Structure formats: C-alpha cells, structure tokens
Design the sequence.
C-alpha cells in the first residue's frame, strides 16, 4: 500500500502563517545567529561560486536538464554548496526541515533562487510529501538532499519513490565532485570547494517508477544510481591526478 498523498485544500495563506510560526519559536539569540549564518553562507556561495570551473556530464535522457517538468532531483547532502550554485535560479523546490539547521539552509537557498518547502514535524512526513506532490502536479521540479537532514551519510530515504509512483515524474540522481575542497568534520563530510578549483556534476539517466512498482526494489535502484553518480564524478578527478 502506498501512502495517501492526494492534494489537500490547504490554502497558501495557511502555509505562510505556518512558516511564520516556525520562525517565531526561535529565541532572539537564535534569530540573530540565523541572520548571520544565512548571510555568511549565501555570500560564501556567491563569492566562491563564480571562481569555480564547472562542467557537466549528462547520461542519455538528461541532456536538457534542468528543463524536464515535472521532475525529481536527488543528491547527497555533502555537495549542497556546489549544487546550490550550479543549479541556482531555476526555481527548484527543495524540502527543508523545520529545525534550526533547516531554517538557515532554507534562507540561503531561497536567496539563490530556490524555493524552500518546509517539512512539518507536527504533521509528519506524509504532509511534507503532499506539499511536494502539489508542486509536481503544477509542473515544477523538486529536489531532495536524500540522506539529510542528519544522515546516515549515503543512505537514501524513500520520499522520491513515493512521489514518483503517484505523479509519474522521473527521478534524476546526480552528484557534484570537487577537485579541491575543504571537508568539514560533520556527519555528511560537507564539502566547500576551494576557489578556482574544478567541479564536475555527473547526472545519471532518469528513473521511472510505475505506480505498482515494488517499493524496496525501486529504493535499491535509486540508491545504486546515487552511488554510481558519486563514483563517476569523483573518478573524473582521480583519473586526472593519476594522469
């Protein structure tokens, strides 16, 4: 049985009010820190991003990305920095948690031209997927940092499979590797590419998930595609160094 992700009649004003309520629960100190962190993160991306030498590898069926509408994008959390710059300005909807960490990430990506769709801890994961389903039904594309918000690293969560089954939208798995990067000591080994380094985005061929597809097999396939994207993107720089 698939979860009932049918669209609800929830109004736009209710969503805005809920986002405001989420912000109001932070203390003054947290609010000030959110302002500082979100602006620092945004400026870092805007300063480092233009110096990067970016390139893409597209497998068959992905040559026109990101243009397929609707579509679901999946990638590992650690390459958010580079992906945020490379896919900026396309209006991609990104699911972010209502946690403190999720709030500053939402503020950063919205300044880059994404739209944050905040998950609701009070209503659970199904409500969050309903919100993303509505976006897909309106012809938008959505993205998941698929092992976020807190891991385990490189373990895919099933949300995109549910959405693909009920909407028919294809899933695109990709990864962005950096030639030289600072790697943080965080759960995701977060990467910040060093200025003027090369970055390579590898986009795998799209996955179609039929409404009656086996859930576990589909999730395993998506996990495989994510791992292949990472391996092939990273291999590009490994082969360059060895050569």
Sequence:
């Amino acid at each position: 049985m698939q979860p009932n992700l049918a669209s609800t009649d929830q109004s736009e004003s209710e969503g805005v009010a809920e986002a405001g309520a989420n912000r109001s629960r932070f203390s003054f100190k947290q609010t000030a820190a959110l302002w500082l962190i979100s602006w620092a993160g945004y400026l870092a991306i805007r300063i480092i991003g233009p110096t990067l030498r970016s390139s893409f590898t597209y497998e068959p069926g992905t040559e026109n990305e990101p243009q397929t509408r609707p579509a679901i994008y999946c990638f590992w959390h650690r390459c958010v920095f580079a992906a945020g710059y490379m896919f900026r300005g396309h209006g991609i909807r990104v699911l972010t948690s209502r946690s403190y960490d999720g709030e500053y990430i939402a503020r950063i990506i919205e300044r880059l031209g994404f739209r944050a769709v905040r998950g609701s801890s009070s209503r659970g994961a199904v409500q969050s997927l309903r919100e993303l389903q509505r976006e897909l039904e309106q012809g938008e594309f959505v993205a998941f940092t698929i092992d976020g918000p807190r891991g385990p690293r490189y373990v895919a969560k099933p949300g995109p499979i549910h959405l693909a089954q009920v909407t028919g939208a294809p899933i695109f798995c990709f990864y962005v590797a950096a030639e030289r990067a600072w790697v943080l000591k965080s759960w995701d080994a977060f990467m910040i590419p060093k200025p003027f380094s090369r970055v390579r985005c590898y986009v795998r061929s799209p996955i179609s998930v039929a409404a009656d597809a086996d859930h576990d097999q589909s999730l395993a396939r998506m996990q495989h595609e994510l791992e292949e994207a990472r391996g092939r993107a990273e291999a590009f720089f490994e082969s360059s160094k060895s050569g």
About this structure: Confidence is low (pLDDT under 50) at residues 1-21. Strands lie at 53-58, 71-75, 93-96, 115-118, 141-145, 171-178, 181-183, 191-193, 198-203.
